[in-house]
Amino acid sequence: MISVLIADDQALIRSAISDLITHSGDLTIAGEAADGHQAVALARERRPDLVLMDIRMPGMDGIAATHEICADADLSAVRVLVLTTFEEDEYIVNALRAGASGFIGKGAEREEIAAAIRAVHRGDALLSPTATRALIDRYVHSSRLYTSEPPRELDDLTERESEVLALVGTGRSNGDIAELLAISPHTAKTHVNRIMTKLNAHDRAQLVIAAYENGLVQPRER
Predict the structure, then answer these.
(1) How many angstroms separate the CA atoms of 222 and 152, rounded?
(2) 8: buried, middle or exposed (CB in 10 Å: 19+, 13-18, 0-12)?
(3) Is 33 helix (H, G, I), strand (E, B) or coil?
């Protein structure tokens, strides 16, 4: 069973998602929170497998709550899936940087939400690298994701790992990386996993962010 903590300030949304989880054979409710502070407190108390996190909430918002959860070593196994609307997609980059494993729109079908929960629980980034890059490209200037400040150190990465990180940042799959570097898909996957460990990244989407932040991939001009 996958335990899910629902964090949303709208009771109607919490009720709808709760109903979805109740009727899904492999999902169970770990609790409900109406704001970020409650979400963090319940995550620490109940250790859910996943937090379904709204962005805009009173008090502590979803981005701050995501950062608190993902920065807590005791909650390293907890994944965060962000709920959003189309009008709020400018906040997604910040949510990914805070540690979220992806996002899904509030208007998604019930089956899509359930599938998203399962995907993130498996360790997959719900947002594909290509989609992540497009999103970053759209908002990179306004969100100041890529600046002239010194990049984060990549000294722990080998030359090959830096090369792999750059390819991940351009939206390449493990299969693509294997073909381009003339290595096996298993070796490509191993490199990606090691990079995630060294950069303390939760998933592949975070590696795309890291590639941008460190200048390995340059934002496209609009």
Answers:
(1) 25
(2) buried
(3) strand
